[in-house]
């Protein structure tokens, strides 16, 4: 009775556990936690990715106090997710999943360390947690780096200089110390380039920046490191993506730190929380991985783009201020609030007899944190890889604390219980402490639960007041881009899908169009996916059917330049090449076209418009039901064009090719 006193306390405080009376006895097993024979691997922290791409796009447009509240839930220690690591995309001007992120060097002679929003996000994270680790990783590169080839390794010195300049700029302009840098997300690596990157880092006094490779699979990087001692010497961490909690022999043989440097990527409901809970433990238990990094940090992009709501929380409505702290935030807290990078895992097998897993970590100063998960198969499927079948049953786990933990008398208890039957989950709740008697305590575990037992008393489930209710994108929206000193380089709510659209000051304009939006990528980037051959930025409500889009346009490229406005745009992200909609184009050669697709293959109408380059014109596109019409400078140019598919979508603007062009006085109704 004395031995189980902690269990009795817990059973009383936990509500109904597994049935007792008349039921089959619970599966019972004992697990030993002991540091007498040394510790396991060093823990490197739990993190998340912003970018890869444009996943935080809408976050920056939130008004205060809501924007700061979201950031608190993500980064503030002992508040919410309390993340240890923030990984960001080093923008490359190309599509990298849900949009493009701007490069700090669009052109060879161009450097600007204030584009995009990752600088801002890293500073906000550091403001809340000065100890947070920062990682930079490119998905794509500006075209000039490859000198016309879609490959970043032909001129490795140029690529290394480009990446190192980003790290130096982070310090010089934002006082940010980048801790780790990657090679090329989920694409080929070059041993020669990695060695040159290390040399270039050292040459610029960046010896403390560590290299992660290759952000793809365990192989071939592990094998190549085994046969190339110089490469082995410069790679600090082997980072694999979506490893399914498993590693490979060669990776272990390198003796390097092993990370799941991108994982999760799952819809953020309770099944997503179950996926996250399972891999946070089992990446170490099964695969010796000492860090797990979620893609993505916060779902702040239009939900109809690829992988909608695959973030730890959701903040996709800056126009309303609405956001949602999803269950993965509180699953994260079970680990992050009670551990720190630099702690060590205990040497344990980590598998529970009745299914599920546990890990134990210590700071080496007497503190102990145990995290237990009992996620069932169907309630913990991640988006990838496929999950082999397994079963989890209610069970009684008895833990014996040995070594320096034998004297521990009480442990704080935090529990999440995912309820898939009634949808009444309880997340990150503090229960009564458990008493440890002569190094022993027992716990009754049900299916789909997470427990943290810890000597630390610092845990906290914080909550800001409820944000405003959800609202659709405004049905009447205008932007004249008249902002002299914009806080960000991109206009609110525009989500670039190929190309980069930036605020521009048109110094030579007599007055009507001094402040505009300009497409600035003029050479096809070294792409990560198949970017479109045209540039495009989308905005609005994907459910829109009938709409009028008006915009002033300015073609800068003589002869074969061209621009468009569009409605009912049905696609973006990695699928941007296949985008359909109603596109109204005008060209520098004086012609116009109406097409049913971004590629311009499905021509619905064409003719003469008389538009000139380097002059302002106003385009209006009106779509009602199955009919569309277009105006040029307020006069009808074409009408009664039949449009049937797609039936709804965003508004958009863009250019015929990678070319300079300007837009002003955008209005959609």
TrEMBL record:
Protein name, please?
Galactocerebrosidase
Name the principal localization, coarsely classed: other
The UniProt keyword set, sorted, is: Disulfide bond, Glycoprotein, Glycosidase, Hydrolase, Lipid degradation, Lipid metabolism, Lysosome, Signal, Sphingolipid metabolism
Q: Which family does it belong to?
A: Belongs to the glycosyl hydrolase 59 family.
Q: Which InterPro entries match?
A: Aldolase_TIM, GH, GH59_C, GH59_cat, Glyco_hydro_59, Glyco_hydro_59_dom
Annotated Glycosyl hydrolase family 59 central domain ranges read 345-459
Write down the species.
Leiothrix lutea (Red-billed leiothrix)
Q: What class of enzyme is it?
A: hydrolase
GO annotation terms (biological process): galactosylceramide catabolic process
**Which N-terminal stretch is annotated as signal sequence?**
1-23
Subcellular locations according to the entry? Lysosome
């Amino acid at each position: 009775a004395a031995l189980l006193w902690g269990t009795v306390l817990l059973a009383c405080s936990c509500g109904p556990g597994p049935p007792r009376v008349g039921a089959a006895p619970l599966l019972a097993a004992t697990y030993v936690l002991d540091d007498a024979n040394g510790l396991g691997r060093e823990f490197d922290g739990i993190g998340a990715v912003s970018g890869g791409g444009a996943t935080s796009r809408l976050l920056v447009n939130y008004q205060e106090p809501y924007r700061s509240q979201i950031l608190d839930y993500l980064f503030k220690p002992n508040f919410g997710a309390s993340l240890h690591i923030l990984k960001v995309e080093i923008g490359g001007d190309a599509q990298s999943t849900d949009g493009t992120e701007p490069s700090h060097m669009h052109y060879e002679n161009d450097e600007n360390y204030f584009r995009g929003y990752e600088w801002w996000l890293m500073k906000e994270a550091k403001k809340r947690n000065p100890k947070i680790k920062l990682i930079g990783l490119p998905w794509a590169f500006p075209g000039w780096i490859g000198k016309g080839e879609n490959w970043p390794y032909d001129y490795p010195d140029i690529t290394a200089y480009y990446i190192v300049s980003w790290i130096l700029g982070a310090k010089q302009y934002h006082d940010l110390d980048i801790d780790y840098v990657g090679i090329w997300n989920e694409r080929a690596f070059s041993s020669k380039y990695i060695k040159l990157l290390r040399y270039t880092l050292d040459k610029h006094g960046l010896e403390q920046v560590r290299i992660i490779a290759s952000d793809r699979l365990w192989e071939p990087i592990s094998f190549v490191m085994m046969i190339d001692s110089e490469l082995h010497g410069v790679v600090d961490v082997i980072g694999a993506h979506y490893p399914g909690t498993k590693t490979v022999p060669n990776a272990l043989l390198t003796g390097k730190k092993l990370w799941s440097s991108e994982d999760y990527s799952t819809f953020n409901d309770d099944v997503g929380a179950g996926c996250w809970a399972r891999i946070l433990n089992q990446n170490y238990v099964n695969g010796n991985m000492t860090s797990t990094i979620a893609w993505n940090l916060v779902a702040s992009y239009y939900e109809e783009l690829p992988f909608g709501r695959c973030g730890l929380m959701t903040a996709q409505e800056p126009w309303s201020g609405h956001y949602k702290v999803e269950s993965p935030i509180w699953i994260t807290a079970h680990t992050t609030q009670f551990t720190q990078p630099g702690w060590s895992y205990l040497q344990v097998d980590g598998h529970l007899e009745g299914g599920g897993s546990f890990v134990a970590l210590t700071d080496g100063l007497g503190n102990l944190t145990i995290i237990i998960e009992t996620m069932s198969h169907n309630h913990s499927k991640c988006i990838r890889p496929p999950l082999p079948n397994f079963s989890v049953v209610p069970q009684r786990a008895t833990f014996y604390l040995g070594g320096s933990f034998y004297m521990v008398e009480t442990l704080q208890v935090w529990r999440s219980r995912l309820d898939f039957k009634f949808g009444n989950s309880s997340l990150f709740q503090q229960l009564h402490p458990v008493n440890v008697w002569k190094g022993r305590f027992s716990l009754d575990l049900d299916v789909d639960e997470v427990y943290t037992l810890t000597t630390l008393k610092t845990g906290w489930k914080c909550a800001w007041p409820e944000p405003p209710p959800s609202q659709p994108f405004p049905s009447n929206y205008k932007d004249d881009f008249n902002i002299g000193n914009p806080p960000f380089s991109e206009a609110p709510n525009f989500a670039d899908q190929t190309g980069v659209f930036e605020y521009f000051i048109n110094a030579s304009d007599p007055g009507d169009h001094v402040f505009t939006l300009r497409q600035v990528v003029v050479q096809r980037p070294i792409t990560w996916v198949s970017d479109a051959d045209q540039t495009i930025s989308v905005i609005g409500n994907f459910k829109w059917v009938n709409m009028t889009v008006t915009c002033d346009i300015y073609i800068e490229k003589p002869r074969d330049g061209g621009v468009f406005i569009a409605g009912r745009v049905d696609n973006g992200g990695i699928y941007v090449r296949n985008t359909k909609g109603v596109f109204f184009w005008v060209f520098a050669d004086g012609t116009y076209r109406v097409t049913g697709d971004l590629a311009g293959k499905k021509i619905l109408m064409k003719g003469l418009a008389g538009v000139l380059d380097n002059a302002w014109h106003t385009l209006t596109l009106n779509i009602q039901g199955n009919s569309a019409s277009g105006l040029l400078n307020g006069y009808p140019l074409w009408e009664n064009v039949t449009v049937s598919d797609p039936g709804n979508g965003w508004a958009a603007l863009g250019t015929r090719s990678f070319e300079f062009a300007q837009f002003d006085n955008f209005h959609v109704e």
